[in-house]
Design a protein that fits this description.
Blueprint: E1 2-4, H1 13-19, E2 22-28, E3 31-37, E4 40-45, E5 48-55, H2 60-67, E6 70-75, H3 81-89, H4 97-101, E7 105-108, E8 111-114, E9 119-130, H5 139-145, E10 153-164
Antiparallel strand pairs: 1-10, 2-3, 2-6, 4-5, 5-10, 6-9, 7-8, 9-10
Amino acid sequence: MKKTDIGQLDMNAVRMIGDEWMLITAKKGETANTMTASWGGLGVLWGKPVATVYIRPQRYTKEFVDAGDQFTLSFFGGDCKKEMGYLGKVSGRDEDKIAKSGLTLTDVDGEPAFKEAKLVLVCRKLYEDDIKPELFIDPEIDGKWYPDRDYHRMYIAEITAAYAAE
């Protein structure tokens, strides 16, 4: 992978996140965990390029994101959907899902990411908060997306580096 200027990339975040998905990966000590995500955003906030990700409280990966200041987002351009589907369904609490996925964990700026990714964003947490049901303007969102009341934690993170496949 080659380090690149995030501002020079031609990206469609709706397609990349919503249709093709991404992996959120973080480490706790020497162990890494990952999860598939199809909710999030990329943009600019506080004068910085940022990524916004959402993680439900029961997800094992949340413990890893909470344990450190950084995480990565790996994008595969629509490839590896089978592997990403597996990583989204199986918990790292129960098995070494990264090893079983067939994807290769690698190190990018000291953070875990995936060798097969077409784009890796290294992110440093800036802000986090829980989704609050009393703040929904459209009450249908609460009933449709949160029947178990397991509201996402939102993380806003500065994109400190971008690496694209060569």
